[in-house]
Amino acid sequence: HAQLVESGGGLVQPGGSLRLACTASGFTFSGQVVSWHRQAPGKERELLATNAGVFSNYADSVKGRFTISRDNAKNTVYLQMTSLKPDDTAVYYCKCDTRGVWGQGTQVTVSS
After folding, report:
1. Phi-psi region at 105: left, alpha or beta (left = phi > 0; alpha = psi -120 to 50)
2. What is the pLDDT of residues 27-58, one digit of tens each?
3. Residue in 65, 61, 37, 40 with CA at minimum distance from that of residue 51
4. CA 6, CA 106: separation in Å to the nearest integer?
5. Residue 2 φ then ψ, to 5°
6. pLDDT by residue (tens digit) across 2-30?
7. Which end of the chain is less packed: N or C, by CB atoms within 10 Å?
8. How would you write the chain as a 3-class SS string?
């Protein structure tokens, strides 16, 4: 049974950093396209970053602040977030695009 579990969310002050992790079970991330998304209250889900091996793409809203990476040995994908703003507050989801599998989401709140 393919499953993704996110972790690392929480409360952080503006300007701070967080690293989200997404661990797969039931399949391996190796060779798969993976992505991070977020959804704020009352807004549509937004694609933030996509990784296909050595290539990554980012939404303009997070380019230069967020970095997607993967550790195939740990079967985990990461989203390093820096210079966080209150507008970054949302539930963050990882997705294995190749398999169409979503994680359950992790809450990130940026507030002083």
Report:
1. left
2. 999 999 999 999 999 999 999 999 998 899 99
3. 37
4. 6
5. -75, 130
6. 999 999 999 999 999 999 999 999 999 99
7. N
8. CCEEEEECCEEECCCCCEEEEEEEECCCCCCCCEEEEEECCCCCCEEEEEEECCEEEECCCCCCCEEEEEECCCCEEEEEECCCCHHHCEEEEEEECCCCEEECCEEEEECC
Picking from 94, 93, 77, the residue whose alpha carbon sits closest to that of residue 31 is 77
Q: Strands 90-96 and 46-52, how do they pair?
A: unpaired
The structure tokens listed for 71 are 């550790």
Query: Which residue is associated with the tokens 């393919």?
Result: 2
R_g (Cα) of the chain, nearest Å? 13
User: For residues 67 and 80, is the Cβ–Cβ distance under 8 A?
Assistant: yes
